[in-house]
Design a protein that fits this description.
The protein is built from eleven helices and four strands; from the N terminus they run H-H-H-E-H-E-H-H-E-H-E-H-H-H-H. The chain is of the alpha+beta class and 285 residues long. The two termini are 26 Å apart.
C-alpha cells in the first residue's frame, strides 16, 4: 500500500516537473487570479469597517439665529440629545467659530470687521446603528422649521451615495469571483489534458495491467494540487505583504483575515481538483 502511494506521488511530481513551461504558466495564471481575488477578499473583509467609517461622518450643522444667546443654545443642546437618532451634540459658540475662521482663512474676523458676526452653531453627530436616511431627512426638515434656526448644512445624501457604490462594488466582486473561477478551471483543465496527452503511453501501460481509472487519475490530481497550492500560496504572500506596505505608507489600518491563506488555498484546491476531474473524465472513458 505504501509502495503504491509512493509511486503515485512520485509520478505526480514527475508530471509537474516534466511539463515545466505548461505548469509554470498555469501557476502564474493562478497567482494573478488569486492575487486579484485575495485583494478583493481583504477589501470585502474591511467593508463593514469602511461603512462604519462613512457613517461616522453622518453629521449636520445647525446655525442659530443671532437672537439666540448661549443659555438658550444650551437648552437646545439638551433637547436635541434626547433624540435617539442623535449620538452627540457639540456647541460651537462665537469664540470657537472665530477660532475656526482663523484656522481656515488665516484672518481674525474681529480685526477685519471690528465685531464677530459669526453665529452660534451646533454640530450634530448621528447614530451609526440602524441608520435610516429618510428618518434623518425628516428630522432635519423638522429642525429647519424651528424659529431659532437660521439654516442647516447636511451632506448625508452624498455619503449615502458612497454606501450605494460600496454595495455595487460587492456585486462586481461576486461577478469577478465567478470570472476568476471560470478562467482557473479552463487553464487547469487544459494543463491536465496536455499532461495526459504527453503521458498517453504511460496511461496505456497502466490500463493494460488492469489499473483503475482512479489509480490513473491520482498522479494528475497531485499535479493539479501542486499547481493550485503553489499559485495560491504565493498569491497570499503577495496580497499580505502589499497591504502591510499600504498600511505603513498611508498610515491605514486595513485588516487581513487571519485565515485568508486557508480560504485562498482551499478555494484554489477545490477549483484544481474539479478542473482536473472534468478534463480526465473526457479522456478516460
Amino acid at each position: 500500500m505504501i509502495d503504491k502511494i509512493a509511486f503515485l506521488f512520485a509520478e505526480g511530481l514527475k508530471n509537474f516537473l516534466r511539463n515545466k513551461l505548461t505548469n509554470f504558466l498555469c501557476v502564474i495564471t493562478i497567482l494573478i487570479n488569486f492575487t486579484i481575488l485575495g485583494t478583493f477578499f481583504v477589501v470585502g473583509f474591511n467593508t463593514d469597517s469602511l461603512v462604519d467609517f462613512f457613517r461616522s461622518k453622518y453629521t449636520f450643522e445647525i446655525f442659530l439665529n443671532d437672537e439666540v444667546d448661549l443659555k438658550q443654545s444650551n437648552t437646545i443642546v439638551t433637547d436635541l440629545k434626547a433624540n435617539s437618532a442623535i449620538s452627540s451634540v457639540m456647541l460651537i459658540d462665537k469664540e470657537k467659530s472665530a477660532d475656526i475662521f482663523l484656522k481656515e482663512f488665516g484672518e481674525n474676523v474681529e480685526d477685519m470687521l471690528g465685531y464677530n458676526p459669526l453665529p452660534i452653531s451646533l454640530k450634530i453627530s448621528l447614530q451609526k446603528d440602524n441608520f435610516d436616511l429618510k428618518k434623518i431627512e425628516l428630522l432635519i426638515d423638522e429642525i429647519e422649521g424651528y424659529n431659532f434656526v437660521d439654516s442647516v448644512e447636511y451632506r448625508g445624501a452624498y455619503i449615502d451615495s458612497i454606501e450605494d457604490r460600496i454595495n455595487l462594488f460587492i456585486f462586481l466582486f461576486l461577478v469577478l469571483v465567478i470570472g476568476i473561477v471560470f478562467i482557473s478551471i479552463q487553464m487547469i483543465s487544459n494543463t491536465v489534458k496536455l499532461s495526459m496527452s504527453n503521458r498517453s503511453d504511460f496511461i496505456e501501460i497502466l490500463q493494460y495491467n488492469g489499473a483503475s481509472n482512479m489509480f490513473i487519475k491520482i498522479p494528475f490530481f497531485i499535479e493539479s494540487i501542486l499547481q493550485s497550492t503553489i499559485g495560491a500560496f504565493i498569491a497570499f504572500l503577495l496580497v499580505n505583504y502589499s497591504f502591510i506596505v499600504i498600511n505603513s505608507y498611508f498610515n491605514l489600518n486595513i485588516q487581513v483575515d487571519d485565515v485568508l491563506w486557508a480560504w485562498m488555498i482551499g478555494l484554489s484546491l477545490i477549483i484544481g481538483i474539479y478542473a482536473s476531474n472534468r478534463a480526465m473524465k473526457r479522456i478516460l472513458l
